[in-house]
Every structure is written in C-alpha cells, then in structure tokens.
Amino acid sequence: MDEAVVTEPQPDLPCPVLAVDLDGTLLRSDMLFESLWSACARNWHRPFTAALALRQGKAALKRHLTEHSHIDVTTLPYDSTVIDHIRQFRAAGGRTVLITASDRFLAEEIADHLGIFDEVHGSDGRTNLKAGAKATLLNDRFGAGHYAYMGDSRADLAIWDQAGRAITVNASRSLRAAADALDPGAEHLATHRASWRAYMQALRPHQWVKNILVFMPLLAAHAFTPGAVLASLFAFAAFSLVASAVYVLNDLVDLRADRAHPRKRERPFAAGRVPIAHGTMMGAGMLAGGTLIALALGGPFFLVMLGYIGLTTAYSMGLKRRKVIDICVLAGLYTIRIIAGGAATGLPLSVWMLAFSIFFFFALAAVKRQAELVDNLKRQEPGASGRDYSVEDLPIISMMAIGAGYVSVLVMALYVNAPTTQELYSLPEALWGICCVLLYWLSRTVMIAHRGEMHDDPVVYAARDGISRMSFLLIAGFALAAMLL
Hints:
Elements: E1 17-20, H1 31-42, H2 46-54, H3 58-67, H4 80-91, E2 95-103, H5 104-114, E3 119-123, H6 132-142, E4 147-151, H7 157-160, E5 165-169, H8 173-182, E6 187-189, H9 196-203, H10 216-221, H11 226-253, H12 255-259, H13 268-271, H14 276-296, H15 299-317, H16 325-345, H17 351-378, H18 394-416, H19 419-424, H20 432-450, H21 458-464, H22 466-484
Parallel strand pairs: 1-2, 1-4, 2-3, 4-5, 5-6
C-alpha cells in the first residue's frame, strides 16, 4: 500500500474520503473471534499456541490466528445497510477505505470479495491498528478533518476526534452522545437490534428436554423420595447449563459449515445476530454455572459431568467428523445422562436400562445422520458439510438406525420378562404396550427421515410432532398401568 498522502483531485464532498471499520461495522461479527474459533476447529491445541503468540502483542496474535484459520469471506454476515452506504458514497465520487484492527490479510480478502474499497489497511503482525494508531494513519494519509469515519465502538472516539465527520453504526446511546459531543452533525445508523430471543435461541433451551434422562434411574427404581427428586432436579439444571454451553461451543466451532447450510446459516452466531464475543462469554458462564452445581451434588456426579464435558468437547472439536465414531459418541452422551442421574441420587443402575439406552440412542443418532444425508441428496450435494459421510452411505446409515432401534425394542421385551421386573411392577404385562409403541415410533421415524421430512435433530422433531407426543403419552400410560393396576 502507498503510504503517501493522497493528492489526486477530490470530489465536491464535505469529506472526500470515507474510512470504514470492519468488526461490528461493515461486518456483524469480530474477525479476531472468527479466526480464533476457526483455528480451534482445525486444531484443538491452537488456543495454547495463540497464548504464546499473544506474548508478542495483540497484532502478533491476530497474524498467528489468521495464518492458522480458514475463513470463507464470501459467507460472512455483512451489514447490507452499511454496504449500500459505502456504494452510494463511492458512486458520488468519494474514495472509500477499509481500515481495521483485524489482520491486514483478512481485510484484503474481504475487500477483494466486496469490491467497494479503493484501499485497505489493517494490523500487520507488529502494529495493532486501533484507536490512536488508526487515527494517526488516517491523518498522515488524508489529513485531519478530511475524512469521514464509520465505526461502532468506544475505541473509535479517538478517530472521530480527528475526523471531519462521525458516522456510528448500531452504537449505544452513550456512545452516540459521545460522538455528538465531538461532531454535532454526526450520523447514526441503526441497521439491526440485538434481541434477547436470539440469545435464547443460541442457548437452545428446547434441547433441555434431553436432560429429562437424568430422572430415569429415579423412575425405574420407583424411588420418589424428596431427596432423590431434589437431587435429580439439580442434576437436570446442571446438565441444562452445561449442554447450552456445549451448543454454544459447537456453533462457534461450526461457523464455516453452518454458513454453508441453507437452514443453519440462520443460527444466531452464523448470521451475526449475536456477537461471537458474547457467545464466548455465554459459553464460559454457562459451563461455570453447571460445574458449580455438579460440585454441590458430590464427587460421583461431578466426575460423570467431567466425563460428559470432555466427551462432548472432543466431539465438537473433531470426533463429529469421523464416521460411525460420531454416532457412537452421540449415543454415549445420551446414556451418560442416565448414569449421571444414578450418580446424583445414589440409585443403582439397571443393566437393562443401560443396554436399552445404548441401542435406542444409537438409533436416534443414526437417524440424525440419515436426515442430514437425505437433505444433502435433495440439494444435490455429495456429502454432509463437516461430516465424514457421503450420500452413497445412506443405505448403510438407514440399516444402522433400523437395526439398533429394533434391538432396543428386543431389550425392552426381554426386560418385561425379567424376574426383577415381575417384582417391581404389579402388572408387568402392560409393559408390552411400550414395546409395541416403540416399534411403531422407530419405524415411522426412520421412514420420515428417509422421505426428507425430518428435522436435523430427531429429538426436536419428536417434541414438535403430534404423533410422537401421542406415542410418548401412550408409553407413559402403559408404564403407569404396570405400576398401579
């Protein structure tokens, strides 16, 4: 980049140059966090090497993460209103400049993709181009007061103080007031509003229904004591917090794949409706809260929770991209919830329950992959993004789902005739009704996935599907009949 002051003829504009910030202004995201999570997705130990790079300064950290990340700039959540503003300024004859504290290599890729900037400046691995450093560069290049600056954070006040015009983007009320104090004619763009619904969507509270599994040991043992119920409720809360943290982590690691997906690209982080920096803090906070509750429930439950956190993190960071292993891990994560329920209450776990859960949830995990592959087949894509499967694997995945599902029903049938069952239930024959409903529901679920009518997650689909809810009520009715009649 030429560092000399621009001397070519300028248009008849109050400020002939428009300098635009990247993070939070042109882009509804932050490239530091984008590159961090992209680097983590490629290599789980990248945060440790990034910490070493940070010892040389923030600019060095940004360059390190840029070199070890893989970001598709064509799918980033750009602010269309800001882009239109830049295009209008350029069409009027103004000169447009992208100037950012993000690494220059990323900034140049973005500028090349958009094609609306005359020049680009960014951090170079040594200098972090932010606040005063950014103002100095703009003054040296264009002269103080001869450029308008568009930004979104308090760090931009140092630039607005030197600029000929201040333009804020989605700034807070206090920041707008500060910008007005520096430039009474400041322009304020409000392109989108932060919504609490987007934050709740990122936490996926509807997925907490899976954590009902922690009540299974209590229900199976008919141990409805106040202590056991309270312990199960705390276990449910702990898993809900940790599960939300894991979903946030998974979405952050999966940003690139989600943005390439027709539905998942609307997820809060992928679409830029929730800042990635906020997601990082949300995930850490939820994880800390769940861990504290786990500690309060005692050593056995805490160890099970640590195992869950370790396994689900390994899944998010790499195991989900390994064929068959990913299905086994998903089945294991469901089963761990049952084990955790036993650890929280101190109730012994039935071998029948564990065997049933392993096969049943293996079937659901296989259905999840089946639904993804059917969706890819409809969109004429060769394989699931970020997964080690291709559409040619569909028949095998379907057989895995059907086979494991039917084996789980067989385990349930054998349990009905077990001596312990005869002692535990007054009318154990009623449990045969559960076997029949499960056989129907599993067969129907696989068929729905085969037809491409399945939600990405079969558990979420079941929660929203009327027939599935009716099946659950029938199962609960047969269980109550076996206990009470």
